[in-house]
Design brief:
Elements (H helix, E strand, L loop, with lengths): L2 H14 L10 H12 L10 E4 L6 H5 L6 E5 L2 H10 L4 E4 L13 E4 L3 H5 L1 H11 L6 E7 L17 H10 L3 E7 L11 H14 L7 E7 L12
Parallel strand pairs: 1-2, 1-4, 2-3, 4-5
Antiparallel strand pairs: 5-7, 6-7
Helix pairs in contact: 2-8
């Protein structure tokens, strides 16, 4: 991502920071969060979590992370300000996610949503390599699949094919899984929350990627293949 694009993303999220949380209140958004939670690894109380592009820090609730575990960074100072208001006991900094933070000490690095698309693939891989602990570290990313981008991002962003993402992760020694998230469904607005969840999780588990809005990528170095937890 060039300097102009980098600054444009920062400006976009600064402008929408005050209304960001209100944009994601539909049942499908909560279903997405529940499925993401199920792809998070089990952590120890002393584990260290880096949330790259933390926004308003919604992943704190999704992952049930303690203030001792969590550190959030975001390129948008306005997003960071709101995160601090929502979670005053947690730590946040206004930093660029392409930079190394903490010299590879993180047991879990989060990139939710779309950080790969904003950074582009190679800087994202470099961020993973710099931040994920080689001995026990894991990561979870949610990527915009081809054809989807938030309606407030009126610029071209990166859409690397799934095969290229997988090839790059393999080349850098990561063990990982890639699944689809948020599939179009006829009549979804008439479904109960449980029906919506059941259908969406079935599609995620099926391995289908066609037509979904996001890809979930979770993994780590071979020693630290995630042990998925169920959050109900």
């Amino acid at each position: 991502m060039g300097y102009f694009a980098h600054m444009e993303i920062k400006n976009i999220y600064n402008k929408i920071a005050d209304t960001y949380d209100s944009r994601y209140k539909k049942p499908l958004h909560f279903v997405e969060e529940e499925i993401i939670a199920e792809h998070l690894p089990n952590l120890y109380p002393h584990s260290k979590v880096l949330d790259v592009g933390c926004g308003t820090a919604n992943m704190i609730t999704v992952g049930q992370f303690s203030s001792e575990q969590y550190f959030g960074i975001d390129i948008s100072e306005n997003m960071v300000d709101i995160a601090r208001q929502k979670y005053p006991d947690y730590s946040f900094e206004n930093l660029d996610g392409r930079e190394s933070v903490g010299d590879g000490e993180w047991d879990l690095a989060l990139y939710v949503f779309g950080q790969l698309n904003y950074m582009n693939l190679e800087p994202w891989i470099q961020s993973l390599c710099a931040n994920v602990n080689m001995f026990n570290g894991e990561f979870l990313a949610v990527v915009y699949a081809q054809g989807y981008q938030p309606n407030y991002v009126n610029k071209e962003i990166g859409y690397p094919p799934a095969g290229i993402i997988c090839m790059m992760l393999e080349e850098h020694g990561f063990d990982f899984t890639l699944n689809g998230l948020s599939f179009p469904m006829v009549g979804d607005e008439q479904m109960s929350y449980q029906q919506l969840y059941d259908r969406q999780i079935a599609m995620t588990k099926s391995g289908e990627l066609e037509g979904c809005k996001y890809w979930i990528i979770n993994g780590g170095y071979p020693k630290s293949k995630p042990n998925l937890r169920v959050v109900k």
